[in-house]
Backbone:
């Protein structure tokens, strides 16, 4: 299992007329955590793109438990529970002081610049093998 955690502060512009974080703003926070996870793996997303690989979002889902509000400090944790095969499924938790606010997931696939599905680059595969152990095929 791999995890990365980031922290952010809810900006006023991220809230709606009810004073709570607008539901669509959680996805950019998920992306921030996902980029941190790739950095932690030693495979920064910027480098993947420069090498001709993209990781588009194929599917996403969110469950809202509690609202966050302007100036809240929130923690976003992304988890990769198993070594990916063709697709990469990540789960997320957004918490404020240990209280679960939102949980969700995203599914991605490696594609080339023409959006044709491709195998993950060798360096990503090697990083996954290191992270999940040599016994994983």
Residues:
């Amino acid at each position: 299992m791999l995890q990365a955690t980031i922290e952010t502060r809810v900006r006023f512009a991220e809230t709606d007329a009810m004073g709570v974080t607008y539901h669509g703003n959680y996805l950019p926070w998920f992306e921030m955590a996902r980029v941190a996870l790739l950095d932690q793996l030693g495979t920064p997303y910027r480098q993947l793109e420069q090498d001709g690989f993209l990781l588009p979002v194929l599917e996403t889902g969110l469950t809202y438990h509690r609202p966050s509000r302007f100036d809240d400090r929130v923690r976003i944790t992304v988890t990769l529970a198993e070594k990916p095969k063709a697709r990469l499924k990540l789960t997320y938790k957004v918490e404020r002081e240990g209280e679960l606010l939102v949980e969700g997931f995203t599914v991605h696939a490696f594609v080339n610049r023409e959006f044709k599905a491709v195998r993950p680059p060798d360096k990503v595969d090697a990083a996954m093998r290191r992270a999940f152990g040599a016994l994983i095929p």
About this structure: The beta strands are 2-9, 57-64, 73-80, 87-96, 99-109. Helices lie at 26-41, 45-50, 122-132. The mean pLDDT is 94. The radius of gyration is 16 Å.
